[in-house]
Amino acid sequence: MITPVLLAGDNGLSLRPVLQKNAARCALTATPFAEAAAHLCHSGCTEPIVITAPADRDEVLRQLRALGLNDADVLVTPCPRGSAPAILAAAMRLGRTSQDLLLICTALRLPGDLARVTGGSAPACDLAGSGTPVTFGLPAGKRAFDFGCLRVAEDGATLTEYLAPPGRAEAAQLATRSDHLGHSQVYLVRVDCLIDAFAARAPRRLDHCARALDRSLPVNGATLLDAGSFAEIEMTSLEDILLAPLSKVHVVPLRIDRAGHGANHPFPRPVPQAGAAGGAPATAERAPDPLTWNRSGDATVVASHPAQAPRMRFLH
């Protein structure tokens, strides 16, 4: 089972529509958050755990309801403490010994559509299921290193070092090297392995987070973590925990086709197609269009026609 964990709001996936150059398409553009949630659920994942701030809670719930994701678990962090404590709280909701997989999206802007970011998911799921955390590396290109740089070993898949986002000149130099990939801020990791990483590297954060979750309160369809306990946690990013020195992390380099889209798609499902006359329908692997789906199967206010569906792009 794969449970998406989405950070939504000021420090996560944007809750505002992506503006397109063609004004006629602006009203039809989904928000990056809604697009990610719809795509992942239609791709075989469970309904997501969403982490947001108090100011963004109502908008998150509105967009989830518009998609028909009424069972999504929404956690509200009372104060900013970085991505790590919030994601830890999400993992602990599933149980400390759970071996389910978490697909964690922490990026402010997903660089490219989600099918491309999570390309190569089948081997990634096998690795994560065996206990090796997986992250996804972006090929060199414009703004590829906005969220940091992954230095990989000669095999092109073993992480040797995580580097903070470089300056423009250094980024241009790194783009010419085959052993450096951009950091997508997307992870695939087993629940118990993530909690074990916190226990080894940040045990006090683990204790405070457990207390904040135990004392949480239901508020208007969401769960508000205890403010006093959560405020005691030091500011921590997920990179400090999962990409720390000597961490064993596997990097899946993303493959891009000539059109600039993903060469493969996450969690593909067989889609019926018309077969020969009198014969059984043929099936083919196809990635669902996240902009035309909701849980009830109808179009929503955050959806667009497939022919007009824009690819997710950088926000400026």
Taken as a percent bin, the fraction of beta residues is: 15-25%
Mean pLDDT: 76
Number of strands: 13
The structure class reads alpha/beta
* Cα Rg: 19 Å
What gross morphology would you assign? Answer: globular
- CATH level 1 name of the domain at 2-133 and 185-248: Alpha Beta
Order of helices and strands: EHHEHEHEHHEEEHEHHEEHHEEE
- Residue ranges: pLDDT <50 for 5 or more in a row? 257-316
Our measurement of the CA-to-CA distance between the termini, rounded to an integer number of angstroms, reads 35 Å
Which topology of the domain at 2-133 and 185-248 does CATH recognise?
A: Spore Coat Polysaccharide Biosynthesis Protein SpsA, Chain A
Look at the structure and name the CATH superfamily of the domain at 2-133 and 185-248. Spore Coat Polysaccharide Biosynthesis Protein SpsA, Chain A
Largest sheet: 11 strands, mixed
In CATH, the architecture of the domain at 2-133 and 185-248 is Alpha-Beta Complex
Supply the number of helical segments: 11
